[in-house]
Design a protein that fits this description.
The complex is a heterotrimer. By secondary structure, chain A is mainly beta. Chain A is built from five helices and 13 strands. The longest helix of chain A is centred in the N-terminal third of the chain and has 11 residues. The N terminus of chain A is likely disordered. The two termini of chain B are 29 Å apart. Chain C is elongated. The longest helix of chain C has 39 residues. Chain C is of the alpha+beta class. Classes of the chains: A mainly beta, B alpha+beta, C alpha+beta. At the B-C interface, helix 2, helix 11 and helix 12 of B face helix 2, helix 7 and helix 11 of C.
């Protein structure tokens, strides 16, 4: 039950996916919430990439470090990704995302473990995020209705403020979210996740953004805080990212996982 | 000497009377011995599951672990005295405290397994298999296969195995969180099945070698708890005091040692209640005494004619009393001896095999029991010796009064068969 | 009957002996009655805990709800039901019905400071809750719930874990009926220390009115309907009656025994132990009877011989001895029942102070310090006839042996 927040493949995707659109400098306040998120969504599109990242979890005074290498590819509709832990303690453990199914590989286990329906509500690796939460974050535009409510300055950048609430008939884990999106680069600078009753549950802040490729900005360091518990936060750092990476054939398959 | 011969001859002369007396004494002694074994066995078996599987006589954990126990917090494990390692700590304790007979170090952790679309949750216990084999009760509960020895071998509770639809020789994959909250998975080989009689244990627990658990959980030379055993569960308080003193002396205040009876408030109450059982034992002795006394006094009473004759022949009152006393002593020793031999044999036999009371349970209309209806009888020589001396003493004393009365009888009255 | 009178006269003639043997049976009877009373008392105490704080005499809910709860899964908020008038009436018409209250029980994480702990939260109706459960009586700090309160009642162990006092801030995070995260928060209104250790750690009480909206549940819906009855026996029988009356597949009716499997098993074990000991006690008594009959036979050999000479058949002589033995057993049992009843009366009214055995200050939870006995009338009858039966049975063989004595040798054996 320790709420150390672990990076999941999906959250990683989510975080790193939002990048600047090819078109720059459109400070249009006429963009609707939905349009803004769509732009962000479009810009997060990664055809393929290889990413090295690090996660530092702070909980009740203890610091735990994890390192991973992730391969991700997407055709716009489905995303597949493979994340492998490379820090000493977790070395060999892998997560594979195929569409909307998640699998796990453990070096000491002879079979793969699929995250079954019953496990969806379980927390992932002891974090606050359940597997379900993770799968949901891929489908933001499908789960929420967005409304642009103004502009604010965040860390010296002009940002759209977009409020999201669960769409009719949809039941995401976080009923309300608020996004602060860099109006120029379409990178999420800050995200707040709320409980149904309006209580602030989690906050994600982007601490470092870099231009990876011409015109494409990506957040490379983020901090996620659990607002209900004191002294609990997780820091994500991307140490290297190669876009349009040539992923070897068959890497993102179940067979490769074993 | 003369009196001895007279007493002996009296006994031989009336075989029926003597046999009845001996029969009564023997049977009573047998019952007293058996009931003691039964009562002590009750206490032991009521709590043995609890003691052997959960607490030992005294359980050592860190204070933080004790407070958060329901969460099974692996990060508050025992790392040893001055972080010197759990195994060294166990050795030190064994050396420094004489009362310790053995220590079972353990790691408990939560685990789960996917079965089709369901999730089966369970508790894993890493334990020192060599120590268990020697001292513990796990080997006694084996119903199939063998104890895990090393590597990824596990012992499954019988009901858990059913739930997982696996058997001995098969392999199964479990997931668990290590001490750093990383999700891990590992495939194990089921080498044995265990049935303790307690549904809770058999449905939720599996056991594996301590080293494997430490390896799996990244807990090098750490354990979550140590089950310390002395010679007697009832003397756990002394043991706990000694452990406490030692731990405090060595600056290890972060540890806490708790006796099994204090761990759960209800166990404590039940334990004290069990001491009432001792009164029941006293009751048996009391009743047995009444039976013996009445038998003997009846015997003496109907020999009034004989007494009168002895008096008429010139025997002194004191000698008459002594003759009866000696008769009593003879009967007492013979009866007690036979009782001890027979009672000892019966108790010994059942202490090994256990007394199955299913038929009895059915008669009393017992409903679904979570445990096997078996009584465990405790066999101790102490029981036999005490019962022997009790028997002989009671009989001798029982003879005193009637013997005295007999001696006081006037020959005239006695010969006429007048009652005393 | 002529033979009976002979037997009665014999017993009367040897009063001392009669009473000594009878006293064995008396002791047996008294011990059994008291042992049983004590055991029932202890069971009352154990079950009482479950009934007062956890699952009352009768519990009604959806089958699926109970199934998930038993499997150790998170309590499903979508398995609620709305009890209709018919259900309420059925329950109220049960024999021994005392009170009922509806609760919504759900799983949550209690969070304060840097820690969190999984708890079971019960959204209750303060008006009727205390008619069924006794948590309120064990408040040690703060106050109990009133309708509309936003505070919670937590157990002393949980308060200790978090270092909380009444008035301190709390948050509970849970998933509402749609599966979305939600919270309830406010102040700790009160802290209870009950005799039920698990309740002291894991159970949190909150007002239903306050919790309905965050939970996303409609007014009137509950997860369980809890019913208190007059006593335990009625609870089991009436639960069965209710089950039959309702006959639905969806709703399941359970008694406290279904929730307290472990204690039920303990109880069974206790009964078996007590009866076995009793059997041994009766065995000792039987020995006494046997020796009494044999010795009295030897003593009255002349008499037996004379009886035969007078024309009494062996069968009739046997019967005389049997009646005597039966008489001893009956007298012993009767006196035993009388004394046993007297002692039990004291036990029931005054109770046995457990403080003599257990150091209650060490325990840390408020257990009852006095054990009060219970009456079980059927036991009195049962034990009387059992003792009578044993006395008769034990005397059969010695009686036949006595009756067989040859009159000629008998008379000569003066």
């Amino acid at each position: 039950m320790n709420t150390r927040i672990r990076m999941s493949v999906k959250t990683l995707l989510l975080c790193i996916g939002f990048s600047a659109a090819a078109s720059l400098g459109v400070f249009s306040q006429d963009l609707t919430g939905g349009e803004i998120m769509q732009k962000v969504d479009d810009n997060q599109f990664i055809a393929s990439a290889r990413i090295e990242s690090e996660m530092i979890i702070l909980d009740r005074g203890r610091e735990i470090r994890k390192e991973m290498i992730t391969y991700v590819e997407s055709d716009g509709d489905d995303t597949n990704a493979l994340a492998e832990f490379v820090n000493p303690r977790d070395r060999g453990t892998k997560y594979l995302l195929l569409g909307d199914e998640m699998w796990m590989y453990f070096p000491d286990a002879e079979d793969l473990v699929r995250i079954s329906d019953h496990m969806l509500r379980d927390s992932m690796m002891g974090s606050d995020f359940s597997y379900q939460d993770v799968l949901e974050s891929e489908q933001l535009t499908e789960l929420y209705d967005f409304e642009q409510v103004g502009m604010e300055t965040v860390d010296g950048r002009e940002a759209y403020v977009v409020e999201a609430s669960a769409s009719e008939g949809k039941e995401p884990a976080y009923r309300y979210r608020t996004f602060w999106i860099d109006a120029e680069r379409f990178v999420i600078l800050r995200e707040e996740m709320y409980a149904r009753g309006g209580r602030l549950l989690k906050v994600m802040k982007t601490e470092r953004v870099e231009e990876i490729k011409e015109g494409r900005w990506m957040p490379l360091e983020m901090v996620m805080e659990d607002k209900l518990r004191e002294g609990s936060e997780t820091r994500y750092k991307i140490t290297s990212i190669e876009l349009d990476y040539d992923i070897p054939e068959g890497t993102l398959t179940l067979e490769a996982l074993q | 000497m003369q009196l001895l011969k007279i007493a002996w001859r009296n006994l031989k002369r009336n075989k029926v009377r003597t046999s009845i007396a001996v029969f009564a004494i023997t049977t009573v002694v047998v019952i007293v011995i058996f009931s003691r074994g039964l009562i002590v066995g009750f206490t032991e078996s009521s709590f043995s599951l609890y003691i052997n599987n959960m607490y030992g006589h005294v359980r050592i954990t860190t204070e933080e672990y004790d407070l958060r126990e329901p969460l099974l917090p692996l990060d508050y494990a025992i790392r040893g005295l001055d972080e010197g390692g759990a195994s060294e700590m166990a050795e030190t304790l064994k050396q420094e405290i004489d009362d310790i007979q053995y220590i079972l170090p353990r790691i408990r952790f939560g685990a789960m397994s996917s079965l089709n679309d369901d999730v089966v949750r369970m508790m894993g216990v890493g334990t020192d298999m060599a120590a268990e084999a020697h001292h513990g009760t796990l080997p006694d509960d084996l119903i199939e296969g063998r104890m895990p020895e090393e590597g990824n071998e596990i012992l499954l509770g019988s009901i858990l195995a059913e739930k997982l639809e696996k058997g001995v020789g098969e392999r199964v994959t479990f997931m668990y969180s290590d001490a750093y909250q990383s999700m891990r998975g590992r495939t194990f080989e089921i080498v044995g099945l265990r049935e303790s009689g307690s549904a809770d244990l058999d449905e939720h627990y599996f056991y594996l070698p301590l080293k494997t658990a430490q390896d799996m959980l990244w807990m090098d030379d750490e354990v979550t708890e140590m089950l310390v055993f002395g010679s007697d569960a009832q003397k756990a308080d002394t043991l706990q005091a000694e452990l406490d003193a030692f731990l405090n002396e060595h600056g290890a205040e972060a540890f806490t040692a708790v006796t099994w009876s204090n761990a759960d408030p209800f166990v404590q109450v039940y334990n004290e209640m069990d001491e009432i059982m001792f009164l029941v034992y006293v009751l048996f002795i009391l009743m047995g005494t009444v039976v013996v006394v009445s038998t003997l006094s009846m015997i003496v009473r109907e020999r009034t004619a004989e007494i009168g004759m002895m008096g008429a022949l010139g025997m002194r009152s004191r000698d008459i009393m002594n003759v009866f006393l000696l008769e009593g002593v003879f009967i007492g020793i013979i009866g007690s001896l036979l009782g001890v031999i027979l009672g000892g044999a019966i108790t010994f036999y059942y202490s090994l095999t256990g007394l199955r009371v299913e038929a009895f349970a059915e008669i009393t209309g017992a409903f679904d029991m979570l445990m096997e209806p078996v009584f465990y009888i405790a066999f101790t020589f102490e029981n036999l010796v005490v019962s022997f001396f009790l028997g002989a003493a009671v009989v001798a004393l029982a003879c005193l009064y009637p013997a005295y009365k007999a001696s006081k009888l006037k020959p005239v009255d006695a010969l006429q068969g007048r009652d005393m | 009957m002529y033979l009976l009178r002979i037997a009665a006269r014999n017993l009367f003639r040897r009063k001392k002996r009669t009473f000594i043997i009878a006293s064995i049976m008396t002791l047996a009877v008294i011990s059994f009655l008291l042992l049983e009373s004590m055991m029932i008392a202890m069971m009352d105490m154990s079950f009482g805990n479950v009934i007062d704080f956890e699952t009352p005499h009768i519990e009604i809910g959806r089958g699926e709800y109970f199934a998930e709860a038993e499997a150790g899964e998170i309590l499903p908020l979508d398995e609620t039901f709305s009890p209709d008038r018919e259900l309420h009436q059925e329950i109220e018409s049960l024999e021994g019905y005392t009170a009922k209250t509806g609760i919504i029980a759900f799983s949550g994480d209690f969070i304060a400071g840097r820690h969190e702990f999984p708890v079971q939260v019960r959204a209750v109706d303060p008006g009727t809750f205390s008619d069924v459960f006794r948590n309120e009586a064990f408040i040690v700090e703060g106050s109990f719930l009133e309708p509309g309160d936003e505070g919670v009642i937590i157990g002393a162990k949980l308060a200790e874990f978090f270092g909380l006092e009444s008035g301190d801030f709390y948050t509970i995070r849970f998933r509402d009926a749609d599966g979305s995260f939600n919270t309830i928060q406010g102040e700790v209104q009160g802290i209870v220390s009950t005799p039920h250790p698990d309740v002291n750690l894991r159970t949190v009480l909150v007002d239903k009115e306050y919790a309905l909206s965050p939970l996303g549940i409609h007014e009137g819906e509950i997860t369980q309907l809890m019913v208190r009855m007059e006593n335990r026996e009625l609870a089991v029988s009436q639960a069965e009656a209710l089950r039959n009356a309702l006959g639905t597949d969806e709703l399941e009716v359970r008694s406290y025994r279904d929730a307290a499997q472990y204690i039920v098993s303990l109880e069974t074990w206790g009964y078996i132990e007590t009866y076995f000991i009793l059997a041994l006690i009766l065995l000792v008594g039987a020995i006494g009877i046997i020796s009494a009959v044999v010795l009295s036979a030897i003593e009255r050999i002349k008499e037996i011989g004379m009886m035969k000479a007078l024309g009494l058949k062996e069968g009739q002589i046997v019967r005389v001895f049997l009646f005597e033995a039966g008489g001893i057993g009956a007298i012993g049992a009767f006196i035993g029942c009388v004394i046993g009843a007297g002692l039990n009366f004291l036990f029931v009214t005054r109770g046995l102070p457990l403080g003599a055995f257990v150091d209650f200050s060490e325990i840390g939870i408020p257990l009852e310090e006095t054990l009060y006995g219970a009456w079980n009338l059927s036991s009195f009858f049962v034990i009387f006839f059992v003792v009578l039966g044993i006395s008769l049975a034990a005397s059969i063989i010695p009686a036949y042996w006595a009756a067989r004595k040859d009159p000629v040798t008998a008379i000569r054996h003066t």
